[in-house]
Amino acid sequence: MEVELPQDQRLSLHINTNTSVILNGSDTMTLQGLSITTMQSSILCSDVEIQGDEFLLGTTSGDITVDGLTIDASDTLVAESLAKVHSALGIVSLTDVTLSQCDLLVETGASSLVFSVNTGRSHIQAKSSSALISVDDVQANWISLRSKTGDISGTELTVEGNSAFMGRLEVMAVSGDVELKEITASGTIHVESASGKITIQLNTQTFAGMYYMRSEYGAMSIRQTNYSSDVVVESADSADGLEKHGSINCDPATNNCLAFGNIYLRSNLGDVDLVLGCSTYSCD
């Protein structure tokens, strides 16, 4: 089925069907809102532009693929709109997504979730019940990644604050490992895993503040590569040996380092490893 919309005004498109949906946008098509729901089939969207505060893609057992999406909700009355993408059983993949004054929530129940090349000035959330979450080249004020039993991996994540709030990177895994590389963060990094290993690698000279790590039964380390120019001040470990803390690129004797940023890493059973700087000059 081919749908042609009038161009004299922006309209919303609503599709509710049991068959697969393929929506290919164009340079001349701008929607006020988009809602696509299907029970057992897949959804494919490409080159879609939304200038409004309504965006919903939902399927029970099909896959969802988005390649090229722009949502600009800066002219709406809502302070931060929420775009939703959800598949209970299928794979969810989003590539080349740009957000303006719009939060994004992506959920999958039993299959993998993949982000790539996403920029936003708001809150980006990814949730999975039992599968892998993989994110790549994501920029936002606040990034949240949560998985119950799957691993979480990410590369080139950037979190920056605004005039009201510090940036925040929040990662929660129950039984999976967490591995994040080439992280640029100004603000808070909060990562927890009940039983998995945590590995966080920060780009050199991009974070300033305090760090704290704890593991009940795993090993803990903070280390610098040959390409790190960060200044680390390690405080004495806790009496029971289960905690490490200190400061990075901030002197706690003369500054309130918590006001600059805070890293909190905790695993009950897994190792905790904090790495400053890349293994090569270009981080390849």
Structure, explained:
The chain has strands spanning 12-17, 21-24, 31-38, 43-59, 64-72, 81-87, 92-100, 102-108, 113-119, 123-128, 133-140, 142-147, 152-159, 167-173, 178-185, 187-193, 198-202, 209-215, 220-224, 232-234, 243-248, 262-267, 272-276. It has 284 residues and is mainly β. It has one domain. It has a 23-stranded mixed sheet that branches. β20 and β21 form a beta hairpin. It is elongated and about 65 Å long. The model has no long low-confidence stretch (mean pLDDT 89).
Q: What's the arrangement of secondary structure elements?
A:
Blueprint: E1 12-17, E2 21-24, E3 31-38, E4 43-59, E5 64-72, E6 81-87, E7 92-100, E8 102-108, E9 113-119, E10 123-128, E11 133-140, E12 142-147, E13 152-159, E14 167-173, E15 178-185, E16 187-193, E17 198-202, E18 209-215, E19 220-224, E20 232-234, E21 243-248, E22 262-267, E23 272-276
Parallel strand pairs: 1-3, 2-4, 3-4, 4-5, 4-6, 5-7, 6-8, 7-9, 8-10, 9-11, 10-12, 11-13, 12-14, 13-15, 14-16, 15-17, 16-22, 17-23, 18-22, 19-23
Antiparallel strand pairs: 18-21, 20-21
Could you list some keywords that capture this structure?
about 280 residues, 23-stranded mixed sheet, 23 strands, elongated, Toastrack_DUF4097, DUF4097 domain-containing protein
So how many helices?
0
| Unreliable sequence segments | none
Q: How many angstroms does the end-to-end distance come to?
A: 45 Å
| Mean model confidence by pLDDT | 89
The coarse silhouette is: elongated
> What is the helix fraction of residues, given as a range?
under 10%
- How many distinct domains? 1
The helix/strand class is mainly beta
Report the major sheet: 23 strands, mixed
Written as H for each helix and E for each strand, in order along the chain, the element string is EEEEEEEEEEEEEEEEEEEEEEE
